[in-house]
Every structure is written in C-alpha cells, then in structure tokens.
C-alpha cells in the first residue's frame, strides 16, 4: 500500500490546527507506531496567492498520488468577493469533485466531560451517537446551469440529482447502518422539490433490497427541529449535499462545540479528512482555535484509510482524558481560564505518549 499522505493546511486557522495534528503524527511515525510519509501542498486562498488558482495542478497531482489527505480549512476574507472560480471554497469543491468523494461522514458524538457545555439539557444529549451521511459531489453545489443574468439583476443555481448518484450514497448508508442500529432517516424536501421526489424513490428502491434496515423519510425543516428536540431518535441520517451541510453544523452544537467534530470524505479509492468547522478568520493566528476536530479527523484517516481503528480509538481516549483534566480551549471554556491551541496540542501529545502501545 502507498503510505504517502498529503497535508493541506489551507487558510485561517487551518495551519494552526494542522501543526498540532502533525505534532502527534510525528510522534506516531518516529516511534514506529505507523508507517506514513507526508508532504504538504496549498489549497484555497493560500493557493490563490501562491499559484493563482485555489486548486492548482501541483496539488491535484499530489492529491491523486496520495493514499489519504488531511485538510485544515479553506476560506479567507481577502478573497471573499472574488468570482466563484477564484474563491478559496472552489478549491475544496474541486478537490471533492475531481476525486469523486461522494461519501461525507460526519459522526456526532459527545465526550462525557462536555455534556454540560452543550446549549441543550444534559438529559437530551448525553447519549447522542449518530452519523450524518452527506452526499458530497452533486446537488445544487454543482448543478448546471448556474450564474448571474447579463444585467446582474438575477441569479440562478440548479439543484440536480441523478438516480445513480442517489443510489450509490444510499448503498453506502445501508452498509454503514448494518454495522450500527440499522435505522436510517433520509432527509429531503419532497413536498416541494422534484430532486427530493427522485431521492425518495431511489432510497426506497435500494432499501427494499435490504429488509433488515429500517428507513424512514423526514422533511428537512422537520429534521432540523427534531435534531434539537430529540436527537436520540437518529442513528444514520442520509441526506443530500446542501441539507447535509446545514444539518451537520446544527448537529455539532449538540456536542458542545463545532471545534470537536471530524469528518471523512470518501470515494472508492480516496479519502480526505477534515474538521467540519471552517477557517474561522476572526480567530486565525491567535492560538485560540480548538485543534481537537483536526486530531479526530486524523483518527478517522487512520481508521478508514489505514485500517487502524485501534489508533482512532487511542486518539479518542487521548482527547477524552485531556478533557477530563478540565483542560479546554476557549470555545469550550466559560471563563478566561482556557488553554491555547498549542498548549492543547502539547497536552494531547503528553497523553498520547502515555497511551500508545509501541
Ligand atoms: C463544509 C463547508 C464547505 C461546504 C464549504 C467551505 C464549501 O461548509 O465542508 O461543510 O459547504 O461543503
Ligand atoms: Mn459546512
């Protein structure tokens, strides 16, 4: 197996969280716990500055030849007003599309010591354990035609799904739910949108071949409400690109902080792992960002791309132990008494050294 991975720190807080993840990665490599080589490249705003393109060829080539990719975040204030093709976010979307990363997994779980950090009552969120399966390379994000009218007085996007796109993500959700509680909630807006009507039909067609899995359908507006009202009813949430984007930010707040949650974007032969939070330009460069989502994303990489669930579990317990010490970054701290990004990285490294089985 090719053991090369690509690190794409990106913009905003991306480089800071990447440095902390690399501290842990270097330790695992040096102590021969895992055999991985890594190299860096640019994506997003930094790539526009250095290469005139948010997804330059050099990054594309390195991405194709890597076994897995760890990504920090993209998005800058500086390039915010650029035309679409020259926005930092286009770099991320191009990466997802060219590698055909149609499966986006966003697990939502809570560490015990964070139960009182959520904006919801402890009772409602204490057992939360669900995963959002978001289709990632179609929908209104990529549908054509799109654009502004000639006089710039109107604009349009196209929400489009094909049967095969819906079926392949449904197949994946079913496989996943077989390893979990066997319950899928498919989220759409079939009372209004044709794409959602097709979505429902395809999900039902695929599900009918898997009688052990129970599938129910929910409208997106109701799902947004149910997620806050009674999150424990969910096991696997299967949804499209746009609804999945929105629901996953909402779900993150159940767990105390968006700074905690990792994600994996997978195709049949590639994996990109990134926190679900963005580049947070307001706190970038201040040593304030929570690096845990990045570290847990690296854990997902070990699990899904290197078949090392043991290491993913180790990283989870490392995080849990540090949080149990009452050490929190600013996003999770109610007082001025918080640890910085790099202090959190050091605490995680100390704990990793104690926990790792060499
Ligand atoms: C995410 C992000 C991206 C998305 C942006 C940065 C393009 O919000 O990964 O959730 O909308 O998919
Ligand atoms: Mn998002």
| Discrete helix count | 12
Task: Provide the CATH superfamily of the largest domain.
Answer: Isopropylmalate Dehydrogenase
Number of strands: 12
Sheet with the most strands: spatial strand order = 2-1-3-12-11-4-5-10-8-9
Order of helices and strands: EHEHHEHEHEEEHEHEHEHEEHHH
Radius of gyration: 20 Å
Low confidence ranges: none
How far the N terminus sits from the C terminus, by CA atoms, comes to 21 Å
The total domain count is 2
**Named CATH architecture of the largest domain:** 3-Layer(aba) Sandwich
- Coarse structural class: alpha/beta
What does this structure look like?
- With 358 residues, this protein is of the alpha/beta class.
- It folds into two domains: 1-101 and 262-358, Isopropylmalate Dehydrogenase, CATH 3.40.718; 119-255, Isopropylmalate Dehydrogenase, CATH 3.40.718.10.
- Helices cover 41% and strands 17% of the residues.
- It is built from twelve helices and twelve strands.
- It has helices at residues 14-30, 45-51, 57-64, 88-98, 122-125, 163-178, 194-207, 220-229, 241-252, 292-306, 309-324, 341-355, and strands at residues 4-10, 37-40, 68-73, 103-109, 129-135, 147-148, 155-156, 183-188, 214-219, 236-239, 262-266, 271-275.
- The strands form two sheets. Strands 2-1-3-12-11-4-5-10-8-9 form a ten-stranded mixed beta sheet, sandwiched between helices. It has a two-stranded antiparallel sheet with strand order 6-7.
- A hairpin with a 4-residue loop joins strand 11 and strand 12 (271-275).
- Helix 1 (14-30) packs across helix 10, helix 6 packs across helix 7 (194-207) and helix 10 packs antiparallel against helix 11.
- It is globular, with a radius of gyration of 20 Å.
- The two termini are 21 Å apart.
- The model has no long low-confidence stretch (mean pLDDT 96).
- Residues 74-75, 89, 92-93, 245, 276, 278 line the site of 3-isopropylmalic acid.
- The site of manganese (II) ion has 2 residues, from helix 9.
